[in-house]
Every structure is written in C-alpha cells, then in structure tokens.
Write a structure and sequence with these properties.
Shape: globular
Helix content: 25-40%
CATH architecture: 3-Layer(aba) Sandwich
Strand order of the largest sheet: 1-2-4-3-5-6-7-8
Number of helices: 10
Order of helices and strands: EEEHEHEHEHHHHEHEHH
Structural class: alpha/beta
Number of strands: 8
Largest sheet: 8 strands, mixed
Distance between the termini: 27 Å
Radius of gyration: 17 Å
Length: 262
C-alpha cells in the first residue's frame, strides 16, 4: 500500500491507497494534494475501509493536459482510476472543490458509485465576501507568514480551532499554481446543473456550521432538492477544513452513514 500510479493513456493519475475493505475514493480541495487527508484516512482504514486518495490532474505526480478542462475531464480521470482499482461500485468522498468533481463523477458514471459523501459542499450560495479578501492574502507573498496564517484562520477554519491545527494544515503539501488555475477555470465553465444532482446514489452531506466559504445553506438546498436521498449533518465548531478540525466526529458520521447502505 502507499502511492500508486494509474496509467490512462496520455494521462497518469497518482493516488495514495491504504487499508482494506470497501473502497472510499477521496478527492481533495482546489489545488490540494492527497496528503491533505493524511490525518483523516487512517481513521477510515481503522474502521475497515480501503481509501484511495487521488491527486487530480496536474497535482503532485498526476500528469495530463491542463488546457480546456471541464469538471467532466477531471471526473473521467477519477472514473479511470476506479475501474483500475477493480472494485465497483465505490464510495466517493469529495471535499470543497473535490465535492464538485465527485458529483460530476456520480452524474456521468452512476454505475461506479455506491454512495456520495460531500464535505463543504458549496455551489449555489456564494462565499462571504469578506472571506474572499482574506483568501487572497494566502497566495500573496507581500504578506508575512503570520498575516497569511491569520487570514487562513479567518477564512478556512472555525473561530474555535486552535492555531496549531491551522498551522499544521496550511503547511501540508506544495502549491500547484498551473493546475489550480486550470481546475478553477474548469469549475467556472462547467454549468452547475451538469454536476449539482450528483447522480442518484445515497448522499451524505457534512457541513461545518462555521464554514464561511461553502455556506451551510448549500446543504439545506441539497436536502430540499433531494429529500430522503440526502442525509444532512451539521457539525459545530467546524469551518471549511472540517476534516482537520473534527476528524473523529466526521469519521463517526461517515461510518454510520455507510453502515446503513446495503
């Protein structure tokens, strides 16, 4: 187990694969590496699940054309990996930007997906404008490390989250500006109704009540749209980085959800 490479023609996708049991495929946030889940996936492994955390195209060891991408291209990459994992269907988990790719996957390839798990599931309700100002500081070298750390805490985390957790999360992984820009553009040009539904599989939506980027109203809309198909869980004292803020509680909610699926 560990880092594995999956060849999809002229595209190579890298994933961190660990554990045994039913497979959960995890998709990181915008520009994020698979390592962003390093403190989270062991909890799922210990609960009896195999995890395959994917570096999307252009991130870390994943390679492929970045021009003219849509969310469908990224979802098809993930579908190719799932087919090579030789266990179908799988559970797909997407965090932040990854939740959009996860839903696009479930919409385009319903036969591959047993359930959809969404963390920080934005899409229809825009972020708090003040948060966007703080986010811009994270990538601006004119601000000091302390200023960027404070901006991260104000935009990505709950006010209840300690500075050590914030600092550890922000140090993990490199930045991948070309891929980040390409993925952001892919999101912008893919119509929301091509991925919003997330297929037909059972869906778990977990949201931090202090999330100022993927506002909790988004989850409420999903629940209203799809009724009993969607299980909505609100987590107190959690922001956009909920899986680093409340990993044990979120794992418990996921395991409970998965155990209810036949």
């Amino acid at each position: 187990m560990g880092i594995e490479k999956f060849s999809l023609g002229n595209i190579q996708i890298e994933a961190i694969v660990n554990g045994s049991g039913e497979t959960i495929v995890l998709l990181p946030g915008l520009g994020g590496e698979a390592s962003s889940f390093d403190d989270f996936t062991p909890l799922l492994n210990n609960a009896g699940y195999r995890t395959a955390t994917i570096n999307l195209r252009g991130i870390a060891g994943s390679k492929g054309p970045l021009e003219n991408l849509t969310l469908h291209n990224l979802a098809n990459d993930v579908a190719g990996v799932i087919e090579l994992l030789e266990e179908i269907p799988i559970h797909i988990l997407g965090w932040a930007f990854g939740n959009r790719v996860a839903r696009c996957l479930a919409e385009n390839h319903p036969n591959l997906v047993k359930s959809v798990i969404l963390l920080a599931a934005g899409g229809k309700v825009p972020p708090d404008p003040e948060v966007l100002k703080n986010l811009s500081k994270l990538y601006n070298p004119n601000f000091s490390g302390e200023e960027r750390l404070e901006a991260a805490k104000l935009s990505l985390f709950s006010p209840f989250t300690d500075s050590e957790t914030v600092s550890k999360s922000m140090r993990r992984g490199r930045s991948w500006p070309k891929a980040t820009a390409a993925h952001s553009k892919a999101n912008q040009i893919t119509p929301i109704m091509e991925w919003w539904n997330g297929g037909q599989a059972p869906m778990l939506v977990i949201q931090g009540l202090d999330d100022r980027i993927a506002l909790p109203k988004n989850g409420e809309i999903l629940k209203k749209d799809f009724g009993e198909r969607v299980q909505l869980v609100n987590i107190e004292k959690a922001g956009h980085h909920m899986h680093t803020e409340q990993p044990k509680l979120i794992t418990e909610k996921i395991i409970s959800f998965l155990s209810s699926i036949k």
